[in-house]
Amino acid sequence: MTEGFSEDMQIYLRSLPAVVDCTADRISYASWFRVEAVNRYRNGEGPTKIFRSRGLGPETIGYKRIERCMDRWKKLYGGKTIVSSATDSDTNITNQMDTTTLELQLDAMEAEIANMRATICEIKKRKLTQ
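Above: the chain sequence. Below: its structure as tokens.
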């Protein structure tokens, strides 16, 4: 096993919207990102391209981590249709959403709040050390 993520790398990873939390050896991803990744994969995009587009390229987190995540998420969602919420602001038409979609949206919002809190804490720490 590798040495894990440095403190600076953990700060970087936590700053990404697709990441809910990060420790030296583990990354927790936002539900919306997991759904997006599986949908994009089903549409023919490669896992590396998907992760890299969210700041999580193999040079940052490693190829194996990307491949294992995709394998796990594909099994998790199986053949289920995964719906992501979308709103057409021009015509004010909202797609119908089931409970799962609403839960995924809530998870994404909670992840974003957690990332913002972590960023605020890091900023406060930096100010205290200056």
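Helices lie at 7-15, 31-42, 47-52, 58-61, 63-77, 99-129.
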